[in-house]
Structure formats: C-alpha cells, structure tokens
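Long-time lurker. I teach an intro course on protein structure, and each term I like to show students one example going from raw sequence to a predicted 3D structure in token notation. This year I'd like something fresh instead of my usual example. Would anyone be willing to generate the tokens for the chain below so I can use it in lecture? Attribution to the forum is fine with me.
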Amino acid sequence: MRVVLTDRRFTDQEPYREAVEAAGGELVAVEAETEAEVVAACRDADVVVTFKAPISRAAIEAMGDCRLIMRNGAGFDNVDVAAASEHGIPVSNVPGYGNDDVASHAIALMHAAAHEIVHADRDVRESEGWGERRPINPMYGRTFGIVGFGRIGRAAVPMARGLDMDVIAYDPYVDDDVFEAFGVERVTFADLLDRAACVSIHAPLTAETRGLFSTPEFERMAADAVLVNTARGPIVDEAALVEAVEEGAIYAAGLDVFETEPPTDTPALACDRIVCSPHHGGMSPRANERCVAIGREEIVRALTGEHLRNVVNPEVFQRGEGLVNPERDAWSE
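-- Reply from a regular --
Happy to contribute to a lecture. Here you go:
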C-alpha cells in the first residue's frame, strides 16, 4: 500500500514513516506545489496525506481506489471534498489538536492590537525617549464576540471570561444546548457586530463564510472595536479591513491568517494598527505532538481497514442515491 505525503508540515521530522511501514505500507514523501505535481504524485495512491498542496478534482481522479485523503490540520479547504465524495474517497482532518493554542493566540492578538503593542515596541526601539505614546484601548470588562462556535471558539470562552468579558457568539449550525452548556448568549450576526468590542473569527472557510467580513460589516462595528482572525484568511476582505482601520471605522485588527499565504502582497502589512503573525497560532510543541499522533492513528486505521474516526464527509459511506452536499457548511468543527 502506497501512502503519499504531498508536502510536509513537519519539515524536520518523519512522523509517519515508521507507523506506515509497520502497517505494511510504503511512505512516499514529495514536495508538490502545483496541481500537476500533485496529480503526478497521487496517481494510484492508497492514502494521501496533505498539508497545503491543492487536492483538486484532477488529483482525486488520478488516485483510483484511494482509501483516504487526510489533511494534516483542522481545516480542509485545500481538498475538493465534493469530488472526493463523488469518487467514494473519505476525507479526514486532524481535529482538536490545537484548540487551546489557537484560542489563546486570538486573545493575544486582541491585546496586541488593542494595546498598540507592536507599534509601541517599534517606537521605543527606534526613537529617543518614549516615542509616540498612543492611548491604549483595553478590552477588559467589555464584550467578546465569537463567530463560529466550534471547538476553538468554545476554548476561547473561559479565556475571555478571565478578562471579565461578557461572551456572545454567532453560529447558525450549533444547537442551542451547546450555547446553554457554555453559558454563552446566542446572537444574530448583526447583533454580534453591534455589541462586540472584540470580534474573534473561528469559522471554517466555506462558500458561505468567504468574504463574510467586508465594508458593510466593518461599518456596523463600533469605532473602538477590534477584529481578530485566526481561522481562514479569505473570510475577511483585507483591502476593506485596511480601509476600515485607516479611516477609523474600527480601531484595529489582529491577523494570523491571510487571503493569500504567505502574505507577500497584502496592504495589511503596511497598516500599523493591524498586528500580523505567520499562521502559527496552532504551532506550539504540544499542539504539534497532538497533530502528529491524531494523524498517524488515522493513517494506520486506513491501512489496516479499521473504522476511520475523523471523516469530514461521512456521506461517502452511504450507498445509492441521495448523497448530501459534502461541502459541509456547518461551522461546528
């Protein structure tokens, strides 16, 4: 059995080879970037493990009788899940490995943006004396609004409450009893924009969430509000965000993800009230260990014929007609 690793998340280690070989498989590691390279690498693969490489319809059609496509992370928007379902291929992700880390990174970005940390640090280093001492905009005791009340959004709840913040959330796909269990007020999207001092995005990238935040949303937010995005870059219109910050529609923003990655050509990099980090919110040593362990176990299950645990398109196991749309607009993961 052939396990193809299209691109490495962990460039300094080989976390899967020993387990794959023990299960009777062969691990083939490549560094595919283009669709053509992925198609060539994945031809006749039994299991495909990917990080950022585009797993398109063409790549899926080249796989033949593939047992699993596994995305090495929580999100899976680089995989054409609809095409995989049409071809009977289950797609798995690695859920839950860095929930607390990403949630705490969102809180850190909120503070960094609201307290002008990056600007202040740079000014103190480059100026004689204190430099420009801007007033800070504390979030303590205000309202924390979560967009996407899945695992990471829920992990942020006690962290925000530790700052004496009221927590509200918007997620049309999570049941009321989940909100009740966490003691979080369920609100509409418009209400969240109206009330939150910090809007923290924790939704996946879907057709529904792409471009969810643009000029109308920023104009609805308070002038002293902060936007934080640790989910997926295309959920936010970056040009509109920069305009909103520079013109005072909102106070500041913190971004760990970008419309195009790496973010070589975004106006956000030139805006000193947008704090940027390199999509590393879930890259603590502990999170990396969990990511490896969860992914390795799923690969072995695929090779040995065991029941897969992290499938994001379970409808692929149905037989006959009536398959549901595998795009999964639900935000609860």
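Some talking points for your students: The chain has two domains: 2-96+285-317, 99-276. The radius of gyration is 21 Å.
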